[in-house]
Amino acid sequence: MKLLKFHLRYHPPGITLEYTKKGIVRNKDIDLLELDSNSDVKVIANEIKQKEVLITEEVLEQLQQCLETLKKRIEHEGPAGKRFYIYKTLVTHLLPVTNVSFDRAGNRCITGSYDRTCKIWDVDSGTEIKTLSGHQNVVYSVAFNYPICDMVVTGSFDKSAKVWSAASGQCVATLWGHSGEVVAAQFAPKAHKVATASMDRTAKLYDVVTGAELHTYVGHKAEVIALQFDQNDCQSIVTGSFDGTICLWDTRVKDCVAVLRGHCAEVSGVQYSWDSSLLASASLDGSARLWDVRQRNCVATLTTPGAEVLDVSFDWAGRRLATAGSDGAARVYEARADCRSLAHMQGHSEEVSKVCFSPAGGSLLTASADKTARIWNSNTGNCLQVLSGHQSEIFSCAFSYAGDTIVTASKDNSCRIWR
């Protein structure tokens, strides 16, 4: 084996080793989830060298330089936060926007709408690149295939999902089989598969190339409203349902691997941590739960008295967990040890429907029915900025991968780009 080069991954911090083995170029990822502004890069470099045969004394100094670069990036994107200004207003659709997502580079974003279309936008110019037309009802879910982002998947109330070429705007596959509205659709990382969740109480797995259905996941007793692939090996899917349960599925078979019980009302969201060792769930029973995926047990219950928990989000490193409440507040907890409360964000006058961390984790973005989004210091809970201007409730919001751009999507049929 011969090491060729290092590749840096900023979010979450990590290094990819590019090397050759028997003449074939390969890659190996090294996660550095504990790296922060106080880390000693020499100590970390020596620890990596002891575990990794590709790291020799000759490249140790170069490794230290890479770690120093990552450390400076973390310091630069610290919790102090930067002011965002309104850059573009995209009058995107004829009817309300349902969801929005950036591509990896942050140059494009996609929007779904009640007008039955998905649109691809150039973020810099604010112009429409493509309109993806073909669904016969609301386009509720939109997603790129990360990290390549050359395809888009849409899930619709017309009971189908579609896969599109992001370059040509042409539909390359229509995924049929559900008897109810498709409310979530996602590409598998590093695999040519798409998973969908439906109001028909099932989830399905499809082959992207052929459009063929691979598995139907049956077991939930009510609507399946959330799903996510395991980010590591893509061999597991988690689903959340209005029946109050979370199910784990193996993509190689159709049977349920495990059912996680504990919520006493509808599950409103589920999310894996970056390394897929933890799972978070949000519920209308007023709680979020943290689950150990390997042990398949609940390790913490985080209650919000008198309010429903509408969304849940890990930071990139999987160290912290944020929740969105119908009481107009967001909360941040430690996702390790005793799950102690770290910050309580109060300021919205109506329910918070969406929460997401900035890539570096120093800021938290919230979207609310009060027509505003807010940026908070995720460590102190202080509000850094109010993003106002929408004429109706904000359904969705997102940071770009670089963390320098925000998009907010509203019931007022528009998106606003902030930089």
TrEMBL record:
Q: Does the keyword Ligase apply?
A: no
User: What stretches of residues are WD repeats?
Assistant: 90-131, 132-174, 175-216, 217-259, 260-301, 345-386, 387-419
Give the molecular function GO annotations: U4 snRNA binding; U6 snRNA binding
Q: Which PROSITE patterns match?
A: WD_REPEATS_1, WD_REPEATS_2, WD_REPEATS_REGION
Q: Which UniProt keywords apply?
A: Repeat, WD repeat
GO CC, sorted alphabetically, is:
U4/U6 x U5 tri-snRNP complex
Report the record's Gene Ontology biological process terms.
Answer: mRNA splicing, via spliceosome
Q: Which SUPFAM superfamilies match?
A: WD40 repeat-like
Report the InterPro entries cross-referenced here: WD40/YVTN_repeat-like_dom_sf, WD40_PAC1, WD40_repeat_CS, WD40_repeat_dom_sf, WD40_rpt
> What Pfam family is a match for this entry?
WD40
SMART domains referenced in this protein's UniProt entry, alphabetically:
WD40
| UniProt entry tagged with the keyword RNA-binding | no
Transmembrane spans: none
Name it.
Dynein assembly factor with WDR repeat domains 1
Record the organism.
Papilio xuthus (Asian swallowtail butterfly)
The gene that this protein is the product of is LOC106124175
